[in-house]
Amino acid sequence: xxxxxxxxxxxxxxxxxxxIGYLMVIGFILLYNFNPAPVEFxxxxxxxYYQQIKPRDIPPLEKKPVMIxxxxxxSLETVGQWPWPRDKISKLVENAMAMKASLFAFDMVFAEPDxxxxxxxxxxxxxxxxxMKKLLTERTSNDEVLAKTISTSRVVLGQAxxxxxxxxxxxxxxxxxxxxxxxxxxxxxxxxFTVSFPALVRNIPILEDAAKKxxxxxxxxxxxxxxxxxxxxxxxxxxxxxxxxFPALSIEMLRVALGRQTVVIYTNExxxxxxxxTKNFTVKTNNVGRIWPHFSKRDWDKYIPAHELxxxxxxxxxxxxRMLILGTSAVGLRxxxxxxxxxxxxxxxxxxxxxxxxxxxxxxxxxxxANAAEMAFIxxxxxxxxxxxxxxxxxxxxxxxxxxxxxxxxxxxxxxxxEKILLDAxxxxxxxxxxxxxxxxxxxxxxxxxxxxxxxxxxxxLAPDQVKAIAENxxxxxxxxxxxxxxxxFCDVRGFTTISEQFDAIxxxxxxxxxxxPLTNVILDxxxxxxxxxxxxxxxxxxxxxxxxxxxxxxxxxxxAMMAEMAPLNERLEAEALEDGxxxxxxxxxxxxxSGPAVVGNMGSELRIDYSVLGDTVNLAARLEGQSKAYGVDxxxxxxxxxxxxxxxxxxxxxxxVKGKTEAVTIYCLVGDEEVAESQGFKTLKQFHDQMIAAYxxxxxxxxxxxxxxxxxxxxxxxxxxxxxxxxxxxxxxQAESPGEDWDGVFxxxxx
Length: 752
Description:
The protein has 752 residues and is an alpha/beta fold. It is 47% helix and 20% strand. Helix 2 runs antiparallel to helix 15 (426-458). The radius of gyration is 35 Å and the shape is elongated. The chain starts with a helix and ends with a strand.
């Protein structure tokens, strides 16, 4: 009895349903560790949503450490279009200092000389007398005026890093005001964690020299790096250029305001451990040196119109004792950003909010244990579903799931709202829900399928009482086979209806046999198995019943050989048609191949057995054959097949949801064997092809069209003109009607 109980328990623990659950738990944990873009995106959106529900409180005026001198629309109307003459910029700084501002910073860079300076205009003007030209050119330039003001004021000039050296300024960069210090013996170096720029866009030398000579001045980098969706969620505290560290604009403003010569990057065994401004004042960062602020909504009270400061009508109470940043909210000057709490916000306010967060210690943190905690929730929640669904049933387990999900979501919200800790429960909740759903559906569908299979299999040759008895115990019915990794091939004649009109029944049969015979031989010669003929269609597979080590390779070789057989076959058929006085319609075929797990074996019953294969891999292979015509290519292969034949000549076709499937799959076309893949013509085509696809997915329609035209010049040997016709039509449509920012590049097929 004890052994029987143990075996029963063991079978329940390792049942098929629970095995699926175990694999799903492992899969979700592995996916979490790989952290693909969709998972990271969903997590960040949850954190964005938290900040939208509970943004940081906007501090009152007396607690605002920084104000924004705003080049707004009214300032542009009052003073004139941007850029303004540098003497007006100088006047802004002078007025700010006169009103007791603690410092004046620039969220911009003066990379070129003042083009509106009368001295510059006079040097290039024609028709001036020598005396007049001398008089004008000997005047103090606007850049000199601004440089003089910088040399006597507490200012922070802006500079920007660039990934393209042609956009930056050569020459020795500004003196670095950032040092580094290891807190422990085994602390890591900060360089690998730091955003690096090969070039800087800097201010003109006269301004830089003035700032370098002024010990009260500094240089800050105003790069704010958004995530892939364009939202700025965190900001690097410093950057790397030519082996030296340079502070972000906000960090440099704090350094200058507090009168420090340098700031210090602290590191420990986990990475970055903050940036020290003074001995007792450290800016908190994550382990890669980024400040993660709790953002507020837009604060219009922080804005001082630039024209008011320029003409002296600005409120002195907003300026005295505060740091000022010169920036712009004018839409035409294109410094509009997105943060979690605002879709469109002036970029200068990002820097202002960073300073507020630092001053008031309103950081968001994602502790080192966050990943472990989230994975533990997936593990234990998933195991709970695996145990409870078979034992308690779907109804009571659903109640357990709801309680668990609400508790986890509530804990995540509590940690954010009360502790400013970012802990994501959404991925784990979705994972557990999917495990619950799959286990529930699998159990239900398996039992229902067994009963139906039993009734269908035996109803015609067993007595009703016997059928009922077996239906009550469907495990007694052993139909099906074994699951194997296989490659499936479907081949179909295009336009077969038109061709069939040329023949009577006997003639059509002979034609089909002439087609199927060479194509069958090709498959059999390359270790394939013919599953069945379906009229003008062939279904074949590899890796059953005998093992075929490189089944995807032999499947692709067969597909190419089948296409090669079509030309001589059509020549013979054309000669026969000419002899019989018939019109010759060339035979054309399309093929689809897919690799993956499938069930193969004796399918059917004791009265009728068919050695066949079934599964999602088979269904997808059939769908891919149908797509060959839609994409204007001869052979379409699935993603797994493509990855198994890296030596062959393949090209990306699309991300597509084929009919009958809810998830997108990546498909490719097979155009040649190893020799073709190594040819220079194909390598060049593939380069332009991949660039065209990348531009298409990035919605860069102009670049995609340009690359498409280059592909057309190279694609003739591969019979894929129809593919480029299709994409040209798509791109022109999207140029006229954008698919939108949330477009994922997936095409939904409406036909098989």
